[in-house]
Specification:
single chain; alpha+beta; 3-stranded antiparallel beta sheet; 15 strands; 19% helix
């Protein structure tokens, strides 16, 4: 999988599902067990964070503005409330349309590539944001406010394939990371490129009817 342009981060206030129940992302600690989509409870390996002021996000780092995924926009309680993530944070989709287009039933789509789809757009930045980065021993899918999305993935292809813009974004958010970070193997799902994501969301918009029908393409369980 060649497309590795990622900087997946949760915004402060996001709730993750853990072995102790729902926990705010800012309260997650290394060693804590978080429930993953594929492998049940897994220990968090590393947590990083960085604050951006509203001034930064309005004038200096406009490209880092969070993406807002409205409550219920991707299915019943998916997410369960408004969810804000970084632009390159990837959302999990399980859909017949993915199989038809890409020969795989499950894909990951960057939040920025979902802008304009079912009300997803840039979020407000008044008061600024704090971005949190959660890393496991491998690339995982976690439950974030009821929506399945990815953990941070600094794999070999992901790091080496980063373009200048995305590498700059990665180091801007988490300057303590470098190319020497431990590698986590392959991404857990196929990652759609921007043109593929556009095709995918176009097909979903055309084929999916009312809100109730959207449930089939983003499920919180197998």
């Amino acid at each position: 999988m060649k497309n590795g342009n990622v900087t997946p981060c949760f915004v402060q206030g996001t709730v993750l599902l853990t072995g102790e129940g729902e926990v705010l992302v800012e309260d997650i600690k290394p060693g804590q067990r978080v429930i993953t989509y594929d492998r049940g409870m897994q220990k968090v390996r590393w947590v990083g964070w960085r604050r951006f002021s509203s001034y930064d996000l309005t004038f200096n780092s406009v490209h880092l503005r969070p993406i807002l995924i409205p409550a219920g926009s991707l299915g019943f309680e998916r997410p369960s409330r408004d969810l804000r993530v970084s632009p390159h944070h990837r959302i999990h989709f399980k859909a017949n349309e993915a199989r038809k287009l890409f020969n795989t039933p499950e894909v990951l789509v960057s939040a920025k590539d979902l802008i304009g789809f079912r009300g997803i757009d840039y979020g407000m930045v008044s008061g600024g944001v704090i971005y949190y980065h959660i890393m496991f021993d491998r690339h995982e899918l976690v439950f974030s406010d009821g929506l399945v999305s990815e953990s941070f993935y600094p794999g070999e292809e992901s790091i080496s394939a980063l373009n200048a813009e995305t590498m700059k974004e990665l180091l801007e958010i988490f300057p303590e990371l470098s190319r020497e970070v431990a590698l986590l193997g392959e991404p857990c799902r196929r990652i759609l490129k921007p043109d593929e994501a556009s095709q995918f969301t176009h097909v979903l918009s055309r084929e999916v009817g009312g809100d109730d029908n959207v449930l089939h393409f983003n499920r919180a369980a197998h």
